[in-house]
Design a protein that fits this description.
Two copies of one chain form a homodimer.
Chain A lengths: L5 H11 L3 E5 L14 H15 L5 E4 L1 H5 L2 H17 L3 E8 L3 H12 L7 E4 L9 H10 L2 E7 L6 H4 L2 E2 L2 E2 H13 L12 E5 L4 H10 L5 E3 L9 H4 L10 E5 L1 H4 L7 H24 L1
Helix pairs in contact in A: 2-4, 2-12, 5-6
């Protein structure tokens, strides 16, 4: 099967569904009624969430930490869940936040972005600079994959390093300049977006607005909507004027919308409400 | 079994052996003659390296990337290798470079630093700021574990973000100040070192010297010796005047000291040569 450029595939999928990205953060203690609190339960739960949201969501974002917490058995579930999501037509983004020296990033890039991997893109931490990012960029070009570089994260203390002033810009703005330069060489012919994206949190709307101008070719992965406090009026600043160029992640507000046996219906309803909420905000932006 | 404070255990072990830390970066293509190029071979190779170096090395540092590259089967080998190294009396440092928002770092911290884990410490990426580090610090206090926060890494492009000027200091120096403040509350009664350590590359000796003064309570994990170009005269700046307070990692120069069937002997000889080299440099420093 011929692969599409990552950003072209992402853009087409968002157009046909929505910018909703469902984050898979399966926590044993939070699994709803009727789901086993073990690896089998996590697998069932993730597949149930995928089935419940796949007609709405463009992307699914499994968070590695929750699978690693279950040991190697959890990693087996992780790969099974990624394969299932891919079969269902979802764009699969592994939230790995990996970053290391070049030779080690070669291993990470081959681990997650090899040809034939069910994973379409991973998140990358660039604290080690360009030679920790280049191996991922190479695999993007070679295997039609994507990355989302952490630029400005959604958590309360993200400013500890990311907002430090470097001359007249913040560290995260300087990094945005690097991301923009990496993105230039990897642009899809249909979408005009790059396979080198950026993570920018919904919880910092002013930064989101400015970073959109600094990285015009990068798709944005916007976490922080829902449980972390970001709202649609905040995240709309991460989109291009035509409503393209971003996906918005919600995890807890969809996964745990109900603690009862109606969790599938509740997840579907939460994803649908998020889709409506985002569309209204984006429509008001375009209008 | 009562656990010792991480820094006390590390300091005692270094005193009884050496500051040598053996990095386990098992690459299938580089496995020596007679070792199967699959998960079984990786397990045999890692156990062989542990046995060959355990009378010299204080620490063993498996790099997660190379195990993740082998899928979930690789993660099973990773946990087996960590358990074996721990049984042999080595301090086990998982080179994970994890870092995320607080709730996700809770999962990473529980995954690797739970009570009874064979892993004594992991490496942490602090780009997300203090609330991505706190969950690890909590597990250090609760379970007698340690962390090494990436401050100044050994790779050529580490300066892209880490050396950006923030007022009259570099980003990595500002982070060193944060690490020093975290370290203050977690000091071992025997060693006078904290369980909150720092990663500082051997390849930047001037920075290493200055960072030693900024983080006097933190054990240093110094990568970059050997294949990456760091020499003993460089790394000695990461030690305290009495020769304590640091471990020096070498991976490729020990693991792949021979491509033949004598790889165990060659690894032992390489570790012994490194021990001698470090002792000579540290002795010249003390003298």
């Amino acid at each position: 099967m011929r692969q599409m450029h990552f950003a072209d595939a992402l853009t087409a999928r968002v157009k046909n569904t929505s910018p909703v990205c469902v984050g898979l953060d399966p926590v044993l203690e939070k699994l709803p009624d009727g789901v086993q609190r073990n690896e089998t339960g996590v697998r069932d739960f993730c597949i149930g969430i995928i089935d419940a949201t796949k007609d709405i969501a463009s992307c699914i974002k499994p968070q590695l930490a929750y699978f690693e917490l279950l040991g190697w058995e959890g990693m087996r579930v992780f790969w099974d869940v990624c394969a299932y999501a891919k079969e269902q037509g979802l764009i699969v983004i592994a939230d790995a936040k990996r970053g290391d020296i070049g030779s080690t990033c070669d291993a990470y890039a081959d681990a997650y972005l090899h040809a034939g991997s069910p994973i379409d893109a991973i998140t990358v931490n660039a604290y080690l600079g360009s030679d920790g990012v280049n191996p991922f960029i190479e695999r993007c070009a070679k295997n039609e994959k994507g990355i989302f570089v952490l630029v400005k994260t959604s958590n309360p203390s993200s400013g500890d390093l990311q907002d430090l002033p470097v001359g007249d810009e913040a560290v995260h703005e300087h990094l945005a300049g690097l991301v923009a330069s990496w993105a230039m060489h990897q642009v899809g012919s249909e979408s005009n977006f790059s396979c080198i994206g950026a993570v920018v949190g919904a919880t910092y709307p002013e930064e989101l607005r400015y970073l959109r101008t600094l990285m015009p070719l990068s798709p944005f992965l916007i976490p922080g909507y829902g449980a972390q406090g970001g709202i649609a009026q905040d995240v709309k600043h991460g989109f291009m004027p035509d409503g393209s160029g971003a996906i918005v992640n919600a995890s807890r507000s969809i996964l745990y919308a109900s603690a009862g046996t109606d969790w599938r219906d509740a997840a579907h309803a939460a994803a649908a409400a998020m889709q409506t909420d985002l569309q209204a905000a984006l429509h008001s932006e375009i209008a």
